[in-house]
Amino acid sequence: MLGAAEYMDRIEAALNTAGSLLNRLKGPGNKAKQIYSRKVITRLAEQLYLLSEANQSLHQNLPKDAYLMIESGAGPPQQSEAGDQFIKQVQQMYRQWAHKRRMRQDLLKSFESSDLGVRSSILAVSGLGAYSILQPESGLHVLEIPKRGSAYDRITVRVKVVGQPEAPTTSVENQLHQALNLLAADETAKTTVVRRYRREPSPLVRDAVRNYRTGLFDRVLGGDFDLFE
């Protein structure tokens, strides 16, 4: 109950922020303007988007915040450099996404297995609609690298999202322990391809979950993967 009450307080504060932004658009005396601030309109639209996701989480009794694991797969030696770069790009994509949405993010752990060539990192993300927006990201993210002819090498990163419990933890160590237990206990690991990323010969991102295609490769990896529906 305390977790739900705290979340409702967060929603109320966000509603107040949206009201303030709307008043800024209206201007003095609520008179209609001829020119509106693009920055304020964008900020208001983002705020309403997050409020909608938060409201959905509340009414569907979904988790509010999320733990996110990003893990590379073992690949051929010639792909190791590209694979290292891609998993770093995916991790940075989510960190930039959280920053743009004004969410709290903590890198709980980043590690690698030298024997298997696997890299992994775990993030904790807290904010309005965090779990609701991130949950569809669970699955495979595939980088396609062109070879000769029409063939491609493929580098895969697996993303797994679980909800954070409402009960707070007292330290980063406890939070990491909680995240590892929840991720290990979750048996819904998906093999569905969420997105395919291709920089060459021309930029293209295909999202099979949100059902969009875009040539804005850098914008997707810059954290705006949820804004192309």
What CATH architecture of the largest domain would you give?
2-Layer Sandwich
Rg over CA atoms, rounded to whole Å, is 20 Å
The secondary structure category is: alpha+beta
Shape: globular
Please report the number of helical segments: 6
Task: Summarize the model shown.
With 229 residues, the protein is α+β, with helices and mostly antiparallel strands.
Please describe what this structure looks like.
By secondary structure, the chain is of the alpha+beta class. It has two domains: 2-59; 66-224, Alpha-Beta Plaits (2-Layer Sandwich), CATH 3.30.70.1660. Helices cover 41% and strands 26% of the residues. The chain has helices at residues 2-26, 38-59, 80-100, 130-134, 172-185, 217-224; strands spanning 66-72, 104-113, 118-126, 139-146, 152-163, 193-198, 204-207, 212-214. An eight-stranded mixed sheet has the order 2-3-1-5-4-6-7-8, sandwiched between helices. Strand 7 (204-207) and strand 8 form a beta hairpin. The two termini are 34 Å apart. The model has no long low-confidence stretch (mean pLDDT 83).
